Amino acid sequence: MPTSLHLLADAPAQLLPARELMAFTLASHIILVPLGVAFPLITLVMHYRGLRRKDATALLLARRWSAVMAVQFALGIVTGTVLSFEFGLLWPGMMGRWGDVFGVGFGVEAWAFFLEAVLIAIYLYGWRRLKPRTHFLLGLPLPFAALLGAFGILAANSWMNTPQGFSLDSGGNPVDVNVWKAIFTPMFGPQYWHFVVGMILTAGFVVAGVYATGWLRGRRDRYHRLGFAVPFTIAAVAAPVQFVLGDSIARSVFHKQPVKFAALEIVWKTDTRVPEYLFGRLQEDGTVKGGIKIPLLDSFLAGFSPNTEVVGLTSVPADQRPTATQATIAHWAFDIMVLIGSVLVLLALWYGLVWLRHRRLPASKWFYGSAACAGVGSVVAVECGWIATEVGRQPWIVYENMRVADAVTSTRSTSLWIMFGVVAAVYVFLFGSFLVVLLKMRTRWRLADEQQATAAGTHTPEADIPYGPRASVPAGDVPAADPGAGRSGGEGP
């Protein structure tokens, strides 16, 4: 029997449904994370532009984006809370033994969520009710609250990858906990900045993609140009920075988690002059099937020399490393992430060259088609990054200290599969409702714009300013509950 099948046969029956449930909820939640972390920053940049240049269109976009931000945050609270409960319900072995060591990260995240909820409420309330400068200043802490939440969750995850800040007693339980060392682990810095810049990049491309789609549909007004240009510029600046940070974190994994690096690069035996495989599948006997082999490249990328020694999977026993299938999954996720990141850098360079040469936005339909796809592509890259991080660490839930199988709940597998089905159905409903709300907001905003344009006798309905008097719209034409009613623009959000 192959080694991987031996390992699966020894695993508890409840391990598979527990992992599948956790993977599903995490993959669902992470779709919202870029907007939660970086959308406040993008909104405030647009807000600042509107105030600085007295630009009614920029202020309008900022106000509408703040409404989307609030709806997204509400959904993120739900999915994030589910994840928090799952840590205790699905992995009581880990939380029971190690919670006192790394649990402070979850505490920081909870406080950050609470603070961000208060700040978003104040920011939404402030439109038309506060002085422009006061309102903007009250919104400034929003990005920092979002970064604090990211700090908490990345502190916990980086500790799971490189645990420290404790000693073990004779029973194997952690004692003498040093909180600072537990937070600032060797992988914290590389993981945190790679994550934060990735969220900024992803949120920028996602928001810009909405307006790129509008451009492709013929909406070429200033509203759509500005709605595209600001978030895309932020993402374009972040893209090459992220590429450098990605290389840095890969090298940190090479030094701090050599077996995970071996899984990401499907390296079987420790050696020098190791080739790089683009995709390909690792077999049980250590051979690689398919893919594109580039001689010497893996050693060179790891240590800038073809003579760099790369640790292989066989450097540890089979029960202390990912299986061939897990290594292949991590490897493909890693390669897809790098491929998408490289394409996004090229798209950012295209945008930058056109701007430097002509001082205008690109006019090519190919560019806007690519920009529309960039939002989806960047979300896929984020998903792949987490897959590579979590699957590459197997079989450890706490690297080299606790296996996943030892942390899993004792709940029957049948109950876990039922729970999985219920959670999946609820999430489909939640995300479907989220999409419906966004589409209704877009429709209401567009109707309000058309009504204002008709009333003003112009085709550029951009006269109503969020801090000025409300535009006169016939009663009953716009629903009173519409957060964008009486303001101008085009296709939202």
UniProtKB/TrEMBL annotation:
InterPro entries: Cyt-d_ubiquinol_oxidase_su_1. The chain crosses the membrane at residues 21-46, 67-89, 101-125, 137-160, 192-214, 226-245, 329-354, 366-388, 416-439. Its main location: membrane. Residues 453-493 are annotated as: Disordered. Residues 473-485 have a biased composition (Low complexity). It is found in: Cell membrane. One of its GO terms (molecular function) is metal ion binding. It is a multi-pass membrane protein. Its EC number is 1.10.3.-. One of its GO terms (cellular component) is plasma membrane. Keywords: Cell membrane, Electron transport, Heme, Iron, Membrane, Metal-binding, Oxidoreductase, Transmembrane, Transmembrane helix, Transport. It comes from the Bacteria. GO terms for biological process: aerobic electron transport chain. PANTHER family: CYTOCHROME BD MENAQUINOL OXIDASE SUBUNIT I-RELATED, CYTOCHROME D UBIQUINOL OXIDASE. Belongs to the cytochrome ubiquinol oxidase subunit 1 family. This is Cytochrome d ubiquinol oxidase subunit I.
